[in-house]
């Protein structure tokens, strides 16, 4: 029993959670924020047929790095320290689905991210680590709240750095379902997110990119979570974005927040209305025990805070790590886009990391009961 307790307590102690902590205008903190442009009913992009940034997309301001376009898709490249090339959708959507087909970047300390992000810090994530050939991480945040330890989960996926996989999020007003290659792997119910108060429920835009979680300037916890220090001598590291499909259940011209509550009821749709689907019509993961492993959240992702201002310096502690592996990749450029100036890789990324000690107390209680 002593061995069980020490392992469980250590895993709980080392759990780190993180969330975006800055926004150019957070509607829950002040009124009068600019309206968010709304997507139409669908946004479907085949990046394998693009030779430049496609319609409906743009580079995140201050992004640094190179994105090439060829038959492999958008080749998003981390070539040197400070690179964090990231694409974002021009429009926001409120409830619907987000599906992306990619080959993740290889490399120790290299992170491939697909993120849904709102102005008031709601967030839904997919994150892939360059040396983890067996798992992908899902995560979510509501209003930037990082005070709980059990938001992230790991899911089995085979060789994501060399094999194309499709990652999907189905988002309604009652559930969020993460799926891989058509198979649901995780379901979050509205009531399970702090009675709905931390359930993502405000207009979000898409961000897809690559960053160095293992940069030496990052905190120890971030580096360990990312799989170790990033070896820039082995760069470039490339992720291949092949296609994206977004369905918007609340199409219109724009979204505005009518008050500072951050609730879906506060959202007004210019030229439309807030749409949603019932829980019964959203596919759910049939088994949580075989596909979901609660773990630490992804720390200090700069993709969530570029051009947001008011950055907060992160402090970290070591975190439990997923199963490690290896992979490789390369890119053949057909056209190149590079913009911005060097950006802080993580410490000034506008996210925070918190060691959540409540889980340790739970481990002590479990140990006492077992003894």
Automatic annotation (TrEMBL):
Principal location class: other
Assigned keywords, A-Z: Cell wall biogenesis/degradation, Disulfide bond, Glycoprotein, Glycosidase, Glycosyltransferase, GPI-anchor, Hydrolase, Lectin, Lipoprotein, Membrane, Signal, Transferase
Disulfide bonds: 25-33
Catalytic activity as recorded in UniProt: Random endo-hydrolysis of N-acetyl-beta-D-glucosaminide (1->4)-beta-linkages in chitin and chitodextrins
Residue intervals of the GH16 domain: 46-241
Gene3D superfamilies, A to Z: 2.60.120.200
Ranges in a coiled coil: none
Active site residues of this protein: 123 (proton donor), 127 (proton donor)
Extent of Polar residues compositional bias: 306-319
Keyword Glycosyltransferase part of the UniProt annotation: yes
Keyword Lipoprotein: yes
A Gene Ontology term for the protein's cellular component: side of membrane
Organism, scientific name: Microthyrium microscopicum
A GO BP annotation: fungal-type cell wall organization
Signal peptide: 1-19
Molecular function via GO: carbohydrate binding; endochitinase activity; glycosyltransferase activity
Residue segments, region Disordered: 306-349
Location(s) in or outside the cell: Cell envelope; Membrane
Membrane topology label: Lipid-anchor; GPI-anchor
Family classification: Belongs to the glycosyl hydrolase 16 family. CRH1 subfamily.
PROSITE patterns, sorted: GH16_2, PROKAR_LIPOPROTEIN
Top-level taxon: Eukaryota
Protein name as catalogued: Crh-like protein
């Amino acid at each position: 029993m002593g061995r069980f307790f020490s392992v469980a307590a250590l895993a709980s102690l080392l759990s780190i959670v993180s969330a975006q902590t800055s926004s150019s205008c957070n509607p829950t903190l002040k009124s009068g924020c600019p309206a968010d442009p709304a997507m139409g009913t669908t946004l479907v992009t085949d990046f394998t047929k693009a030779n430049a940034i496609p319609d409906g997309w743009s580079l995140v301001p201050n992004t640094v790095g190179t994105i090439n376009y060829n038959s492999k898709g958008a080749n998003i490249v981390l070539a040197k320290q400070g690179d964090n090339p990231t694409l974002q959708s021009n429009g926001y959507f409120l409830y619907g689905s987000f599906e992306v087909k990619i080959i993740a970047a290889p490399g120790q300390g290299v992170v491939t991210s697909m993120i849904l992000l709102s102005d008031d810090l709601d967030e839904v994530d997919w994150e892939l680590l360059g040396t983890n050939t067996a798992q992908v991480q899902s995560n979510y945040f509501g209003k930037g709240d990082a005070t709980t330890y059990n938001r992230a989960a790991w899911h089995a996926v085979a060789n994501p750095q060399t094999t194309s996989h499709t990652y999907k999020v189905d988002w309604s007003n009652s559930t969020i379902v993460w799926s891989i290659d058509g198979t649901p792997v995780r379901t979050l119910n509205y009531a399970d997110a702090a009675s709905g108060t931390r359930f993502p429920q405000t207009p979000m835009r898409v961000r897809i990119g690559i960053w160095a979680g293992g940069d030496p300037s990052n905190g120890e916890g971030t580096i360990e979570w990312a799989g170790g220090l990033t070896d820039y001598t082995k760069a470039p590291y490339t992720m291949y974005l092949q296609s994206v499909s977004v369905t918007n259940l609340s199409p219109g011209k724009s979204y505005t927040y009518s008050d500072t509550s951050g609730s879906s009821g506060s959202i007004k749709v210019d030229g439309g209305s807030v749409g949603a689907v019932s829980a019964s019509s959203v596919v759910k993961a049939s088994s949580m025990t075989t596909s979901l492993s609660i773990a630490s959240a992804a720390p200090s992702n700069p993709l969530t805070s570029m051009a947001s201002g008011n950055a907060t310096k992160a402090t970290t502690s070591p975190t439990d790590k997923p199963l490690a592996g290896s992979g490789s990749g390369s890119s053949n450029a057909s056209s190149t886009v590079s913009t911005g100036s060097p950006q802080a890789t993580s410490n000034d990324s506008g996210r925070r990391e918190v060691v959540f000690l409540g889980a340790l107390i739970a481990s002590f209680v479990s140990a006492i009961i077992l003894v």
